[in-house]
């Protein structure tokens, strides 16, 4: 017997579970299907983000930062730590517990909002505008019938051609978050977000980390001035970042893995690593959906093809998150999930792609919203720039972290904020003010005239806005 729903969501990551909750809030009978399994074969909703992405990576970044502070940072505060030890198993267990709390939280939210949860793989059987039949296979075996379907099946790590992830020596994000002893020599291919975050974790815990990046520029999507500043800090911390390399043969042995590459000067290199993380981007996941069977169109890169409203090629079938175009970020997936549920309800769901913040959770953190200086130059936009260093911020000095700066870019004529870029302490939190300002199309002068608490890191934001008009007060 089939079960009927107004909305069936396939995938329970940030895009899917949030879409399901919003649809249920709007009064639709809603189901969410997710196949992720925990170690006991039970449900673990939350997708990549909760299980092997945002949440566990931030847990390990926090633990490793505490370890590094206890080892080096506390002494200048007059705090001597004797007999400092590291129990990686306990660190990983804590991380797993943080993940479980999030899995359980989502199951609780489903109950609270009356979302029916099915643990298994969802695939299209047949359907048209009058309704779709979705088969669930796995722990739950059911057939669901839906008026609307939201596909939120996420993404998978991209492997290097011919080099499969074994998660023991050649690691994707999954293996990188579960290394059970600090490797002596850790290789990382790809100096992107995962490479820098995971490289930072294991460097702080004592690994010698070598990052190999194909592009000649470091963090090409980041504002150049900010990327240069970050590069300085990362290399000073001991991350060896090699740009402009060409990866050759990768040979996993019994206990280590050999990487051959050509460096930026054209010299052949060969390095043996205890572990190798491959973080060269992610690919959309449509495995097992039976997209072709029902005529759900993919684009040339394998993403589900959608229009600006996340409508697919099939009537009443929508797709959100990593499986569609746009940045692969949890908060982007969530915004699309909410917007789609509201569009199904006939409302005007809204996602502003110009104000999606990016954060790299290294130390110092890097965060930005809007255009970079190089983008404005390429687009021929006349702009003014203002920067303020954390070195001149009292709270940063008290914290003992004066690295980095806040940078504002504003329209030369109207003073509207076009981009804000931060490298420094708590950049992930500070960027929200800039996102709000840009969402309301504020000017740099608006921020400059707002009273900010003293002493706070956010004063650096105000001062950078003042600097746009060459009026910073403390620098
Ligand atoms: P996913 O989270 O991938 O969820 C998809 C879900 O669908 C999965 O549970 C999957 O098992 C399930 N599924 C797939 N196919 C089926 C099917 N046929 N039937 C049933 N279930 C199915 N983003 C940030 O914004 N901030 C961060 O700090 C951050 N850190 C990250 C760190 C790492 C190491 C990684 C890898 C990613 C990180 N991301 C971060 C990116 C973020 O995880 C993704 O953008 C986000 O998870 C995308 O959400 P989604 O709902 O589209 O897909
Ligand atoms: P990425 O796109 O951030 O970085 C991949 C890097 O690998 C790029 O610099 C690229 O030039 C390089 N590269 C590609 N092919 C290569 C090759 N053959 N040899 C050497 N270098 C090569 O991808 P990453 O780090 O895998 O992360 C995937 C996505 O996950 C991110 O783009 C982001 O959307 C999301 N994510 C977000 C986080 C956050 O918001 N804090 C944290 C981690 C991941």
Automatic annotation (TrEMBL):
Q: Which residues lie in coiled coils?
A: none
- Tell me the cofactor note: Binds 1 FAD per subunit.
Pyridine nucleotide-disulphide oxidoreductase dimerisation domain ranges (all copies): 356-465
Q: What Gene3D superfamilies does the database record attribute to this sequence?
A: 3.30.390.30, FAD/NAD(P)-binding domain
Top EC group: oxidoreductase
What UniProt keywords are attached to this protein's entry? Cytoplasm, FAD, Flavoprotein, NAD, Oxidoreductase, Redox-active center
Look up keyword Cytoplasm and say if it applies: yes
Localization recorded for this chain is: Cytoplasm
Per its Swiss-Prot or TrEMBL entry, what cofactor is needed? FAD
- Kindly state which reaction or reactions the protein catalyses: N(6)-[(R)-dihydrolipoyl]-L-lysyl-[protein] + NAD(+) = N(6)-[(R)-lipoyl]-L-lysyl-[protein] + NADH + H(+)
| Domain FAD/NAD(P)-binding per the UniProt entry, residue ranges | 5-337
Pfam families noted in UniProt: Pyr_redox_2 (PF07992), Pyr_redox_dim (PF02852)
EC number of this enzyme: 1.8.1.4
User: What other comment is given for this protein?
Assistant: The active site is a redox-active disulfide bond.
Membership in a protein family: Belongs to the class-I pyridine nucleotide-disulfide oxidoreductase family.
Name-wise, this protein is Dihydrolipoyl dehydrogenase
* Annotated source species: Noviherbaspirillum aridicola
Record gene name? odhL
């Amino acid at each position: 017997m089939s079960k009927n729903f107004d909305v069936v969501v396939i995938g329970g990551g940030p895009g899917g579970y949030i879409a399901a909750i919003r649809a249920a809030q709007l009064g639709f009978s809603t189901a969410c299907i997710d196949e992720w399994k925990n170690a006991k074969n039970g449900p673990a909703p939350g997708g990549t983000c909760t299980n092997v992405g945002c949440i566990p990576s931030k847990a390990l970044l926090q633990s490793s930062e505490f370890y590094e502070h206890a080892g080096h940072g506390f002494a200048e505060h007059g705090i001597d730590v004797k007999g400092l030890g590291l129990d990686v198993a306990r660190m990983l267990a804590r991380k797993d517990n943080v993940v479980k709390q999030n899995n359980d939280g989502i199951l609780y939210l489903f109950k609270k909002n009356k979302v029916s949860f099915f643990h298994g793989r969802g695939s299209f059987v047949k359907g048209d505008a009058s309704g779709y039949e979705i088969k669930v296979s796995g722990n739950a075996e059911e057939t669901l019938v839906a008026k609307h379907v939201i596909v939120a099946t996420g993404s998978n790590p991209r492997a290097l051609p011919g080099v499969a992830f074994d998660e023991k020596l050649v690691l994707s994000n999954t293996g990188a978050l579960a290394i059970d002893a600090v490797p002596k020599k850790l290789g990382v291919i790809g100096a992107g977000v995962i490479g820098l975050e995971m490289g930072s974790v294991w460097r702080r815990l004592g690994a010698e980390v070598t990052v190999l990046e194909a592009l000649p520029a470091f963090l090409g999507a980041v504002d150049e001035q900010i990327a240069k500043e970050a590069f300085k800090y990362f290399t000073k911390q001991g991350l060896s970042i090699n740009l402009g390399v060409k990866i050759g043969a990768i040979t996993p042995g019994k206990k280590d893995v050999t990487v051959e590459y050509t460096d930026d000067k054209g010299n052949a290199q060969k390095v043996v690593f205890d572990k190798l993380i491959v973080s060269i981007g992610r690919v959309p996941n449509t495995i097992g959906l039976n997209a072709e069977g029902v005529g759900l169109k993919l684009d040339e890169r394998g993403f589900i093809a959608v229009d600006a409203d996340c409508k697919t090629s099939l009537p009443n079938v929508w797709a959100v998150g990593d499986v569609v175009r746009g940045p692969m970020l949890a908060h982007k997936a969530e915004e699309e999930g909410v917007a789609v549920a509201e569009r199904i309800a006939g409302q005007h769901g809204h996602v502003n792609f110009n104000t999606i913040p990016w954060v790299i959770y290294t130390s110092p953190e890097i965060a930005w919203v809007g255009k970079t200086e190089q983008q404005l130059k390429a687009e021929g936009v006349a702009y003014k720039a203002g920067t303020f260093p954390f070195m001149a911020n009292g709270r940063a000095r008290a914290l003992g972290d004066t690295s980095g700066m806040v940078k504002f870019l504003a329209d030369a004529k109207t003073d509207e904020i076009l981009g804000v870029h931060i490298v420094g302490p708590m950049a992930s939190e500070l960027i929200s003010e800039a996102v709000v300002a840009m969402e309301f199309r504020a000017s740099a002068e608006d921020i400059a005239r707002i009273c900010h608490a003293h002493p706070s890191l956010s004063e650096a934001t105000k001062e950078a806005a003042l600097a746009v008009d060459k009026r910073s007060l403390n620098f």
